[in-house]
Amino acid sequence: MSEHEFPPTPISQVLLAILGGIFAPTLVIVLIAKLFMSVDSTHVPEDPKIAASKIEERIKPVAQVAVATVEAGPHVDKGGEEVVKAVCSACHAVGALGSPKIGDKSAWGPRIAQGYETLVKHAIAGIRAMPARGGNADLTDGEVANAVAYMANQGGANFKAEKK
Q1: For the chain, what is the domain count?
Q2: In percent, how much of the chain has pLDDT > 70?
Q3: Is the whole-model pTM more than 0.90?
């Protein structure tokens, strides 16, 4: 029979093992005791209606959205300058995608030569990179016409916006 010699165990490890052996079961006993003490055996069931209303209160949405309709009077077309500042200037102020800059007479000259009606038709339907109505579908034909007249007049034309 062969004997195995184990290295001697330091006293600090022995003490830690004893303390761990005492602490772990004590912790389990304390937690189980707390569990049983927190259980309320005198609990009386609530009225089902009250319980249901409490549940509904807890799960209701945090906020609600109310959509209101705006009763406005008859639509009044915006002026050309207002439409240009709100919509058209996004591209025409900087000449994006080859659009003629506002006030650039050389860029507007060939377009003005096509005539007011043609320019309005292109602005309403869209042409090349320009989307219909400048990308704002809410604009009326009259508002688009006002904007065309305003921009073309800045480029040297003498158009008067027609009421559409």
Answers
A1: 2
A2: 93
A3: no
